[in-house]
Amino acid sequence: MDGCMRRVCPCLVKLWDRGKKDVPAGDDPGEGEVVAPPRKTPPLPPAKEKGSIYVALWAFEARHEEELSFETGDMFNVLSRDGDWWKARKIDTNGRVLGTGFVPNNYLERADVSVESVGFFCRWYFGTMNRFEAQENLMSPDNDNGAFLIRESDRDTVGYVLSVKSSTRVKHFKVMKDDSEQFHIEPSPHFSTLLDLVEHYSNYSLSGVGRLGKPCKRKKPEPTDLNHLIKDEWELPKEEFSLEEELGSGFFAEVYRGRWKSNINVAIKIIKNSELNHQEFVREVEMLKRLRHRHLISLFAVCTESPPYYIVTELMEKGSLLQFLRGPEGQHQDIVSLVDMGAQVADGMSYLEENNCIHRDLAARNVLVGEGYICKVADFGLGRIIKEPFYVSEDKKIPYKWSAPEAISHGKFSSKSDVWSFGVLLYEIITFGGNPYPGFTLKEVFEQVKDGYRMPCPTKCPEFLYKIMMECWSAEPENRPTFKLLKDRMDTCITPYEDNN
């Protein structure tokens, strides 16, 4: 256990050693009194040991008979781990079972490792988290200027990041390591542990933000996933769903906010086409069921007993990326945040690419934004799972401004035509929802692009991003990058901004 603690949270090494000696932190020989705000036990990897105990960080009210209600501080013995929902027993201090059911794992914190000696000192450690989640937590009205957290970046090349609330924004500082494995943010000083780093900047100013204040208060998450409840029952009756306000409408479908069994929020897409081939639709849904990724919208269920058909997915509260970018929240995003949104889309599309799935209508209107500014690609479910290099479509309802030349002229769709569309999506992002090819008619767009025209670099667009856009718009599909390469390049380009943006 000692070795595990040292590997998982280096900030606790000193305190762990003190705890083993049963010596209070302030009385350790040769050490001054530790002045530190309350801190949170660092999340540990799921334990393989039988009998692992977890504690609830927040209360949760069950929405279904298979879920388990609990209060803050309740204890659990986890029975099985499957995605975001775990099956667990709620127990009392004597180990007596009080109930069994599904619980959201992000409401729990492992308590096996000496909470008494360790938990007080790491309230600021938030585990793996992206910059958007950090911003969402820190910008809560509950946090004052100087509120901070340390997180492990979700980008493999970054490592630890210190995120600090500063006035109306959040600044992110990459925590670097020198050759002797010491931590530092500025050229000096260097620290043997993250705890020492936090203590130093709690007493001395950090460039751009001043002294660190109180640890960030963690925002209570909203559980939305239904897969632990519906299991393999993908086909559900319409009577179990209620429609609320309309969220959007397109040529093929209307989207509504809805509820399942009156108490679980979902998004319901109602397919307008009454002539849709039932067998073909069901076959596509069967394909869609296996596509699971953090940057793809999750399918929950379908209703196909009678038209119009329903497609039921998770609800993304901030709406489409296009609406978001044009709204007040989107207008306040900085360049780094905008590029990160593009990288999230590339990540989801890379997964589709790996699974031989093409989208055919990738655009900001078909990307949804949720809490923590997470972006998820939507509307890929009606695309084709392909084994050939491309799929030939007779469909003339093509989104010209987003489509690759070969898709328009010959109906050839592939992952490479999706890459072309991604370049246009980047244009939408960096222009805060601007309309591609402004002033051009649809016919003019096709003719101009065919003759070699490409949109000029938008105002304030970073050079590296415009270069990526131009590569996406290569005339020959084979010369366009893959989504995996796009995701890796965008992550690499954004990394330098982690230091103090």
UniProtKB/TrEMBL annotation:
<dbReference type="GO" id="GO:0005737">
    <property type="term" value="C:cytoplasm"/>
</dbReference>
<keyword id="KW-0067">ATP-binding</keyword>
<keyword id="KW-0728">SH3 domain</keyword>
<feature type="region of interest" description="Disordered">
    <location>
        <begin position="22"/>
        <end position="47"/>
    </location>
</feature>
<dbReference type="InterPro" id="IPR001452">
    <property type="entry name" value="SH3_domain"/>
</dbReference>
<dbReference type="GO" id="GO:0004715">
    <property type="term" value="F:non-membrane spanning protein tyrosine kinase activity"/>
</dbReference>
<dbReference type="Pfam" id="PF07714">
    <property type="entry name" value="PK_Tyr_Ser-Thr"/>
</dbReference>
<feature type="domain" description="SH3">
    <location>
        <begin position="49"/>
        <end position="113"/>
    </location>
</feature>
<dbReference type="InterPro" id="IPR036860">
    <property type="entry name" value="SH2_dom_sf"/>
</dbReference>
<dbReference type="InterPro" id="IPR050198">
    <property type="entry name" value="Non-receptor_tyrosine_kinases"/>
</dbReference>
<dbReference type="InterPro" id="IPR008266">
    <property type="entry name" value="Tyr_kinase_AS"/>
</dbReference>
<dbReference type="InterPro" id="IPR020635">
    <property type="entry name" value="Tyr_kinase_cat_dom"/>
</dbReference>
<keyword id="KW-0727">SH2 domain</keyword>
<dbReference type="Pfam" id="PF00018">
    <property type="entry name" value="SH3_1"/>
</dbReference>
<dbReference type="InterPro" id="IPR001245">
    <property type="entry name" value="Ser-Thr/Tyr_kinase_cat_dom"/>
</dbReference>
<feature type="domain" description="Protein kinase">
    <location>
        <begin position="241"/>
        <end position="498"/>
    </location>
</feature>
<dbReference type="GO" id="GO:0005524">
    <property type="term" value="F:ATP binding"/>
</dbReference>
<feature type="domain" description="SH2">
    <location>
        <begin position="124"/>
        <end position="216"/>
    </location>
</feature>
<dbReference type="GO" id="GO:0001726">
    <property type="term" value="C:ruffle"/>
</dbReference>
<keyword id="KW-0808">Transferase</keyword>
<dbReference type="InterPro" id="IPR000980">
    <property type="entry name" value="SH2"/>
</dbReference>
<keyword id="KW-0829">Tyrosine-protein kinase</keyword>
<comment type="similarity">
    <text>Belongs to the protein kinase superfamily. Tyr protein kinase family.</text>
</comment>
<dbReference type="GO" id="GO:0005634">
    <property type="term" value="C:nucleus"/>
</dbReference>
<feature type="binding site">
    <location>
        <position position="269"/>
    </location>
    <ligand>
        <name>ATP</name>
    </ligand>
</feature>
<dbReference type="Pfam" id="PF00017">
    <property type="entry name" value="SH2"/>
</dbReference>
<keyword id="KW-0449">Lipoprotein</keyword>
<dbReference type="InterPro" id="IPR036028">
    <property type="entry name" value="SH3-like_dom_sf"/>
</dbReference>
<keyword id="KW-0418">Kinase</keyword>
<keyword id="KW-0519">Myristate</keyword>
<keyword id="KW-0547">Nucleotide-binding</keyword>
<keyword id="KW-0963">Cytoplasm</keyword>
<dbReference type="InterPro" id="IPR017441">
    <property type="entry name" value="Protein_kinase_ATP_BS"/>
</dbReference>
<keyword id="KW-0597">Phosphoprotein</keyword>
<protein>
    <recommendedName>
        <fullName>Tyrosine-protein kinase</fullName>
        <ecNumber>2.7.10.2</ecNumber>
    </recommendedName>
</protein>
<keyword id="KW-0966">Cell projection</keyword>
<dbReference type="InterPro" id="IPR000719">
    <property type="entry name" value="Prot_kinase_dom"/>
</dbReference>
<dbReference type="InterPro" id="IPR011009">
    <property type="entry name" value="Kinase-like_dom_sf"/>
</dbReference>
